[in-house]
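Session log. Operator J.P. requested a structure for one protein chain; no other inputs attached. Running the standard single-chain path with token output.
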Amino acid sequence: MSIGVSTSCYYPLATELSLEKIALLGTGTCEIFFNSFSELEKPFLDELCRIKDAHGIRVPSVHPFFSFAEPYLLFSEYERRFWDTVELYKKYFEAANTLGAKILVLHGGKESNTVQEELYFERFAKLLEVGKEFGVTTAQENVVHYRSQSPDFLMRMRTFIGDDLKVVLDIKQALRAGYSPFAFIELLKNTIAHIHISDSNSQYDCIPPGEGHFDFGRLFAEMDALGYNGDHIIELYRHSFESDAQITESRLYVERLMA
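Structure written below.
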């Protein structure tokens, strides 16, 4: 278990430059957020591996750039499109394998998506099985305006899929949807396999950890009590911070709390 940083923090900086920047900040764990098709090809993945290996970085997770289209591509009533998209997502699973990542973060279907819940769960379970063939877990992230924004929806998903379901808890997304992140922990418990962390205050719901009022001590205590051994990834937007020093200070702040 460690504190890491997502390359998405520096978007729209090129992914490889984001990884290098994070490496130079002394971060040992990094989530890779892909941003284009060529980034799934061997030459680019080799470059990412060169950077991560040169700096001793571990990559536990990857994030597709197709999140905006997942409701249409994966969670519609048109089955052929689903299977064609599964073939595309095999590229993500292969990329995860190359980087040593074990988790693929999925947004899933929009709240307005009309497909029946059971079909949604069936589709997710099928993608989950394909990921297993590559040694990668497809994990459902809670995201505002998506079905997964609701902890109750995730519980129904858990009931349908069983122990194979894993969830990415995103603090800022929970707050944006009007839920306490601790409500997800209370209900989902060991289903949570990965966590995206950020801080918040009365004005902003996504700022660097340590600059707001979120109770990270409680977060770590509750997850520790559950035997959580996943990572905590700092995931911000580029406008959420002004300097690289804030990223470093946030990581060190969280690491001190976990010590």
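Operator note: The chain has a mean pLDDT of 98.
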